[in-house]
């Protein structure tokens, strides 16, 4: 990949991940769709779970119908959908987000092979996109490569500043054969401990068929 091509792809990814950021930010306008990117859709009906895999109290099993990807969220998810422009055609994306007293959490599914974009580029694109929402700055650190059920993945801690103070969070990005998946939790720094617990619950419950 040439430097020019990589730069353009990263710019497109930055714009597209604004959909994810806006869909998960804990604020009064957290689910206000960017005019160029997405439209608000109804939340899916939670899928009942067998007794042996019943979610923790207050958790709702949420399914992304096109892919079958599921995760347990602390409430009924609001859903945002959009067609994301890429160099060689658009990519459908869906974000399932819940606002909690501690912040915001949820997951996003991109209908494209996960190796289409390096995971490091996906992380950088997300961090860059945060600024597009007008909610301050965001940086990533403690970046760790890992595997999830044999799939390549990347974990990172997030921190930033906005008009209300410090923001912290965590993100996991997973490369699947057919999808790129992001799991994210963000909120005020004073809720850092609870936010970490929420992210741990989220990534532990995430299932990719």
Descriptive overview:
The structure is a single chain. With 209 residues, this protein is an alpha+beta fold. The protein has helices spanning 3-24, 119-132, 192-205, and strands spanning 39-41, 60-64, 69-73, 78-86, 89-99, 104-110, 137-148, 151-162, 165-175, 180-188. The strands form two sheets. It has an eight-stranded antiparallel β-sheet, sandwiched between helices. Strands 2-3 form a two-stranded antiparallel sheet. Helix 1 (3-24) crosses helix 2 (119-132).
Biggest β-sheet, characterized? 8 strands, antiparallel
| Count of helix runs | 3
Task: Return the string of H and E elements.
Answer: HEEEEEEHEEEEH
Strand-pairing-aware structural class: alpha+beta
Rounded to the nearest angstrom, the radius of gyration is 16 Å
The share of residues in helices is: 10-25%
Oligomer designation = single chain
Distance between the termini: 30 Å
Q: Could you tell me the mean pLDDT?
A: 75
Low-confidence segments, given as residue ranges, are 1-16, 22-55
Give the gist of this structure:
This protein has about 210 residues and is an alpha+beta fold. It is built from three helices and ten strands; from the N terminus they run αββββββαββββα. Residues about 1-15 and about 20-55 have low confidence and may be disordered.
């Amino acid at each position: 990949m040439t430097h020019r091509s990589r730069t353009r792809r990263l710019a497109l990814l930055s714009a597209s991940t604004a959909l994810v950021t806006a869909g998960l930010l804990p604020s009064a306008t957290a689910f206000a769709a960017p005019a160029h990117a997405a439209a608000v859709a109804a939340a899916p009906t939670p899928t009942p779970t067998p007794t042996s895999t019943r979610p923790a109290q207050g958790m709702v099993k949420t399914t992304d119908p096109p892919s079958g990807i599921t995760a347990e969220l602390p409430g009924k998810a609001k859903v945002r959908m959009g067609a994301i422009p890429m160099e060689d055609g658009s990519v459908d994306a869906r974000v399932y987000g819940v606002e909690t007293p501690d912040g915001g959490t949820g997951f996003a599914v991109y209908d494209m092979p996960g190796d289409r974009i390096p995971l490091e580029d996906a992380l950088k694109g997300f961090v860059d996109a945060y600024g597009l929402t007008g909610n301050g700055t965001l940086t990533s650190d403690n970046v760790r490569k890992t595997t999830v059920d044999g799939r390549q993945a990347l974990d990172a801690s997030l921190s930033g500043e906005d008009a209300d103070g410090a923001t912290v969070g965590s993100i996991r990005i997973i490369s699947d054969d057919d999808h790129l998946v992001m799991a994210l939790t963000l909120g005020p720094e004073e809720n850092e401990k609870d936010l970490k617990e929420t992210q741990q619950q989220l990534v532990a419950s995430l299932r990719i068929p």
